[in-house]
């Protein structure tokens, strides 16, 4: 039977990681995989998480199953972190999932159950895994314009023109903050326009939020999601704890479905539980429990927020330094977008040939679409990158 299987395309980012490891050059720079790194290139366990792990080890008395939707305390803590007071809690169904990817996958599954005709509108570009999961599931996708390759900002007119095509059968997938891979984001008045259009068309918003706290701050990064949740009748929100809690391998995420009312919530909750049951039964608990402990304990929470804020401002400082260095070397302001973008990523707007030359001639590894991971830099490597960019003629 296995002979009928087809070769699957290798994950490009993971292949890049391998190539980086094999490169013998000392001054090589890894701007590929989307993992936060400190100035020494390490991805540390956050202090509050380490502390919570210690406490959990002491206090945990059983590893028996939790509920199908995971521990209710996790859902409460995360709903509050992401949605604040935007909607009444009794309209929000939520289920823990294996990472943000699990939440995205379950959301698509729910959409397919609710409406097999639904098309999913995705930004061009978007996180490649969105496309690959949708393709695997056989769900039709429609790309909407998002990134202006000249200005490296959001092509908002193009986006709105393309979204004008949505119908009441469709879902529009939006990144909550820190757009991956471009780093270009909607401002609040643009979010308002998108919400008005979706309400006008009756399309369902789905928000993927994987970097809350990496952009402008925990509250600021949730402003778009909160607006959508409070101003549209229904929405889906897929959240990841991988980045902002630094617990990538624990596989911790949450899918939320906001309903019109409490009755709608009941139906949604039953569906989320059902979907967990069909796909993997009980979701992972360890990471979710750590997150709950951190969010519920004043001391741990303060420590987590302070460390997250340090990561965020560190990335912003690197952005500023890179934009300034490029301005100095190139004598032009055309790289100012690097300081405007938010989150871990920026799309440079280089051609695939230029990306290859950056790797071959300068040992700078970035994804083929010219996405660079700002957290892969430190104060010393910024000038090296800036020089490589200018020498490559980007
Ligand atoms: N959505 C987006 C846009 C992402 O960038 C990521 C992480 N690469 C995820 C979801 C999910 O991450 P994870 O499954 O590791 O939580």
TrEMBL record:
Q: Which GO terms describe its biological process?
A: L-phenylalanine biosynthetic process from chorismate via phenylpyruvate
Q: Give the source's domain of life in one word.
A: Bacteria
Q: Which cofactor does it need?
A: pyridoxal 5'-phosphate
Q: How does it assemble?
A: Homodimer.
An example molecular function term from Gene Ontology annotations: identical protein binding
Q: Which residues form the Aminotransferase class I/classII large domain?
A: 27-389
Reply yes or no: does the keyword Transferase apply: yes
Q: GO CC terms on record?
A: cytosol
Q: What keywords are annotated for this sequence in UniProt?
A: Aminotransferase, Pyridoxal phosphate, Transferase
For this entry, the protein name equals Aromatic amino acid aminotransferase
Which family is this protein grouped under?
Answer: Belongs to the class-I pyridoxal-phosphate-dependent aminotransferase family.
The UniProt entry, under InterPro entries, shows: Aminotransferase_I/II_large, Asp_trans, PyrdxlP-dep_Trfase, PyrdxlP-dep_Trfase_major, PyrdxlP-dep_Trfase_small
